[in-house]
Design brief:
Blueprint: H1 19-25, H2 39-60, H3 73-95, H4 104-121, E1 146-148, E2 151-152, E3 155-156, E4 160-162
Antiparallel strand pairs: 1-4, 2-3
Helix pairs in contact: 1-3, 2-3, 3-4
Length: 167
């Protein structure tokens, strides 16, 4: 399983980001049992929802989810950063009454998260040590069609196209 973000609470929420990492992205906010959102809400609702969405996207890309924390630290670092940015942006927006327009910081966090996801989905950031299985959609960086033309007795035949990846 992935890392447990709630070592200091009696909850069980597995995720890629730790609470401390999320809190580091929103140092202007404090979370405890009396704040809105509470620390428990940050750890359960926001963190779990984001984790589930990330796993859905990763599964669509062919990765076995959840990606275990035992894989390369670069992989868990990339996923942890994306996850923490997402949760921090959601929490920042929630503390401001749900109005995304109010928080420039929340918008900046979302933009950073979006740029990382886009780079990851295009294959510019790779998590090569995470397991992939079954049929999955190829990222643009993996779509490298090859072609060759056959000439038999001076007559050009129909072209033949192949891919580097197996389906």
């Amino acid at each position: 399983m992935a890392r447990n973000a709630t070592a200091d609470l009696e909850l069980s929420v597995d995720c890629y980001a730790t609470f401390e990492r999320v809190n580091a992205y929103v140092p202007w906010l404090t979370f405890n049992s009396t704040t809105r959102p509470t620390k428990r809400q940050v750890l359960t609702v926001f963190t779990r929802d984001s984790f589930d969405i990330m796993n859905g996207i990763l599964a669509e890309m062919g990765y076995v989810t959840p990606v275990p924390s035992t894989v390369n630290s670069t992989t868990t670092g990339i996923l942890g950063k994306i996850h923490a940015l997402d949760v921090a942006a959601q929490v920042d927006i929630a503390t401001r009454g749900g109005n995304a327009q109010v928080s420039a910081q929340g918008a900046a966090l979302q933009e950073q998260r979006n740029l990382l996801w886009q780079s990851f989905q295009r294959g510019q950031i790779a998590i090569t040590d995470a397991t992939r299985e079954g049929a999955y959609r190829l990222r643009p960086a993996e779509q490298k069609p090859k072609s060759r033309f056959y000439v038999v007795d001076g007559n050009e035949q129909d072209p033949v196209f192949t891919r580097d990846k197996k389906f």
